[in-house]
Design goal:
By secondary structure, this protein is an all-alpha fold. The protein has a domain of 166 residues. Helix content is 83%, strand content 0%. Helix 1 crosses helix 8, helix 2 runs antiparallel to helix 4 and helix 4 packs parallel to helix 9.
Length: 252
């Protein structure tokens, strides 16, 4: 439990580290603006489409709509809003990660230089962009594949929905930890299956960190501004908690 709490609180304890180093703030401005544009566009489009479809389906624009129809409409509005957040989370994860990958890589690299007190070998912009985007695509293929498998669990009678929800949360914690721990591993050109093994060896630290990252990435507006901080936190955690000292990492 101690390790879980360490991982859970790590993003918040990383705030001081992030704001102490102005170079991290400088490299975070562009991805924050891009993420704000992406999330804002996705949220507005999804919300308007979903709410418009709901109003048309219920015929709520009719001023003579009864109490129960209005009650159902209000309940569905709440469910629709939560569904909008979930859709935005998925699309923001997919689009935001790919578009801002080179910027997040730059933030992670600066954190690594600060933590390890050593200068990193500079790559050209296009090589850097290619490696970081390739890493994001690998993660997203993995993410979508497992989401599909989890969705299929709903077909299991009775316990399927509960099982799907529980496994979905556990998987989301693991994936979000992998997402932000991945940058130094990608720079070292690790194979994807080895990234999974290294992340899994973090055990409760991994799931604690991933749980907080999942919550922060799910919250609108907060996710836009916290994402660069989570990139910095993931890279810092990678070295502080010994992910980089795994035998698998050294031998890859």
């Amino acid at each position: 439990m101690k390790d879980f709490l360490f991982g859970f609180t790590y993003p918040f304890r990383s705030l001081k580290f992030f704001f102490t180093h102005k170079v991290l703030i400088k490299y975070s401005i562009a991805p924050m603006l891009i993420n704000l544009l992406i999330y804002g566009s996705v949220f507005i489009f999804t919300y308007k489409w979903l709410m418009g479809s709901l109003d048309n389906w219920l015929g709520i624009e009719n001023t003579e709509a009864g109490f129960w129809l209005k009650f159902i409409h209000t309940a569905l509005l709440i469910i629709g809003f939560l569904l909008t957040l979930f859709v935005c989370y998925l699309l923001f994860t997919i689009l935001g990660n790919i578009v801002t990958a080179p910027f997040n890589e730059e933030i992670s690299q600066r954190v690594e230089e600060i933590v390890t007190e050593s200068k990193m070998n500079e790559m050209g912009f296009w090589e850097d962009a290619y490696i970081s985007i390739k890493g994001e695509v690998q993660k997203l293929v993995f993410y979508i594949f497992f989401l599909f498998l989890i969705f299929l669990l709903n077909a299991v009678p009775a316990a399927g929905s509960v099982l799907s929800a529980v496994i979905g949360v556990i998987f989301s914690c693991f994936y979000n930890a992998l997402d932000f721990l991945d940058y130094p591993m990608t720079r070292k050109k690790m194979r994807f299956r080895d990234k999974l093994k290294v992340t899994r060896k973090g055990k409760l630290v991994t799931y604690g960190f991933g749980f907080t990252a999942f919550l922060l990435m799910f919250l609108p507006v907060v996710n836009v501004f916290m994402k660069p901080i989570l990139v910095a936190a993931g890279t810092s955690l990678f070295y502080e908690k010994g992910y980089s000292s795994q035998d698998l990492f050294r031998n890859s």
